[in-house]
Amino acid sequence: MDGSQPTKRGSLPLPAYTAQLERDLRGAIEGEVRFDPGSRAIYATDSSNYRQPPIGVTIPKSIDDVIAIVAACRQYAAPLLSRGGGTSLAGQCCNHAVVMDFSKYLHNMLELDPKAKRARVQPGLILDDLRDAAEQHTLTFAPDPSTHSHNTLGGMIG
∠ at Cα 44 (12, 2), nearest 5°? Predict the structure, then answer.
């Protein structure tokens, strides 16, 4: 073995650095750090048929948290994956990586400038929330996926 922790049949073993990475993340961010089997199982899926448990899950509360998560993952060369609403039909948000879920805390519209036809949003903002705000100024955001009521802008772009 390579020092990795065993997991259930069919999934990749957890890297040897997993426990230390979890400790480092818990000490570095205000948001949530979830490396337990239940959380990993929840984040192993999206709207596709793909199933791949992540190494762990982080739920950042701020940009500073995001920077700290990226730095910690970089230190261990741990793969990193951003996640929005989990509505992908092709498995983009399911991988053997540390997941950053933006949907819980980083879901605000920071600015809507109708004259410039520009919005500044956090990655967890739901598409319909942007559309509703834009429509008040006779504007829209054109993409129209079937999951518009619960997919996020970060997931659409990422």
Answer: 15
The residue with tokens 């762990």 is 56
Token code pair at residue 154: 């970060």
The per-residue b/e assignment along 101-138, b for 16 or more CB within 10 angstroms, e otherwise, is bbbebbbebeebeeeeeebebbbbbbbebbbebbeeee
Judged against a pLDDT cut of 50, whether residue 111 lies above it is answered with yes
pLDDT(2) > 50? no
Number of other residues whose CB lies within 10 A of the CB of residue 86:
22
- Nearest Cα residue to 66 out of 81, 53, 46: 81
**Cα 27 from Cα 83, distance rounded (Å):** 22
109-113/118-121 β-pairing: antiparallel
pTM of the model: 0.87
Mean pLDDT of the chain: 90
- Close Cβ partners of 66 (under 8 Å, ≥ 6 residues apart): 60, 100, 106
All domains of the chain, ordered by start, with CATH?
18-101 (3.30.43.10), 109-157 (no CATH)
At residue 9, the pLDDT reads 52
